[in-house]
Amino acid sequence: MSGHTNGAASAPNPASPRDPYAEKLDAFPELPAAPPPPPTINIVKSPSDAPDAGLRSLDHYKRALPTWRYRLRQWMLPLIRWETPYLAYLQETMRTPWLDSYFAITANLGTHTFFMIGLPMLFWCGYASFGKGVIHILAEGVFFTGFIKDLFSLPRPLSPPLHRITMSGSAALEYGFPSTHSANAVSVAVYGILVLRSPDTVLPDTTKNLLEGLSYFYAISIVFGRLYCGMHGFTDVVVGSVLGAAISLVEFHYGPALDAYMHSSSWWAPAIAALIIIALVRIHPEPADDCPCFDDSVAFAGVVIGLEIGTWMYGRTSLDSFGGNAHSVQSIDLNALGWHVVLARVIFGVLVIFVWREVMKPTLLKGLPHIFRLLEKVDMNLPRRFFTPASKYETVDPGSRMDTLIPSVRDFPRVVQSIRHPTTRGRSVSIGPQSAADAYETLAYRERRRRESIGSNGSVKSKGSMFELREKNGDWEGKGAASGVQGHNTLNDFERMMGTGSVLASPNEEKEGMDLAVGQQDELSEKEMFLRLIRPRVRYDVEVVTKLVVYTGIAWLGVGLIPIMFELVGMGSAHLRNP
Questions:
Q1: Catalytic residue among 181, 263, 284, 327, which?
Q2: Nearest CA to 482 among 100, 221, 227?
Q3: Which coarse location class applies to the principal site listed for this UniProt protein (predicted)?
Q4: How far is CA 197 from CA 193, 202, 208, 210, 212, in A?
Q5: Catalytic: which of 60, 112, 232, 284?
Q6: What CA–CA distances, in Å, run from 232 to 80, 223, 330?
Q7: Measured between alpha carbons, how far is 297 from 145 in angstroms, rounded to an integer?
Q8: Does the predicted model carry a pTM greater than 0.90?
Q9: For residue 464, what are the CA distances in angstroms to 166, 247, 492?
Q10: Fewer Cβ close by (within 10 Å): the C or N end of the chain?
């Protein structure tokens, strides 16, 4: 465990969990020092002498998934593969250094981290109803897209031929179908447009039209950016967008009535809502690979639990700025409150949330392992794959970066650096498998191509795709293009690149354009491919409860306790109520 930087234990431990890929790698023989790549493999007629197609990885999903889920995956997989050459053609046709930077940076505006940092301010600045609606649609979008991702376990479109442009190291570890970015962006845009068109919204027509236009532009930019960056296919973004729009329509038309019912009910209403949310977390499908989708679902589940409890509690206090109804569509007059007070409220609220997180996270990570070990003894441990049980480790490093929604205090220097120098914040252009799902799909597609070649020609030709990539990369600097593949490939060329599995470097771009490092072999061996993958951090069973408690507390503080504290310290808005 000492060799793992993220989520490593604070002290050496003989019972440390193994590397997530160790068991996969142990199954493969040692690589030869310099394997010669023969241009042609002659196939003999005897079935017993045919190339071995019985690699364990080819049956990975058949073994890892229930039969009905495996059949669903196999039904959808051909569509994902069919799209890939068209996506590569689109990417090659459009890529420029400026667009690379634009779509990589603006992709952050579709993440749940961006929304989670900004949403509390809606409550502190008087837009409680809109803020609650946005939290609902984001939480539902993250949960349902994560649910579907783990259910289908479908890979992202293959690279090569696609180049993946991203500023996130963890995004590549997730499955591709459907797109959470698209669901988030479309749901927020649709919900915002519906609110703008509502009779309750009193704004000048010019302002409404401007905000509506920005909403359309925002959604289209995020959705198309996922295609441009090679992170998703057409099916991913279409299904994600439809899901996001449907969630917003349901929230806009039925959310206020449900909120009013929750507000008028006794304490059992938020309690039942919390139990339902926990039950949904419990039935979240087990992924076939180590995918971090479940982590985000747990965090947002905690946010919704805290939101419902906090708004229910705040609406029953005499300090409620909305006269006993925290779900009112009214807003606070910020000019009457004073912008200096608004700024002070934001700073104060952020400090309270960070103090809560910095105190509760290490406390829970220190105390929960002892409780979980006791639960293991009575067979009540957390039955979740890819999470190390408490009996397998001594302690958890409280500084481990297990949170993906809100940055910690120690992350501030990195965040400031990313704001000051956005084009050098780890933006990379990667070619080749990055996750286990990528590697398995590369091997499966390679085997499919091999069998097709055996059936049609009686021999297997070595792929020329990476040779073509190297040849075309030679004139990149002279032409000033951002991509290593110039605009002369056909759809058939891109299809031939699929399954080559050549892992190229993922360089940080410290200058305009991409420093492309070309692979030394056209096709990687199976073991080498897994050795070069981005390895997910070790995850611990206590993280699930830790995230639930921490994020429940963050939401409860943000919408319930902090507004009360505003009134007590002289930054309140109760005096602005209509008499």
A1: 181
A2: 100
A3: endoplasmic reticulum
A4: 6, 10, 8, 12, 9
A5: 232
A6: 9, 9, 39
A7: 9
A8: no
A9: 27, 46, 12
A10: C
> Could you confirm whether 181 is annotated as catalytic?
yes
Distances from the Cα of 450 to the Cα of 83, 309, 460, 482, angstroms:
20, 57, 6, 32
For residue 51, cis peptide bond before it (omega within 30 degrees of 0) = no
* Unique residue bearing structure tokens 């992202």: 156
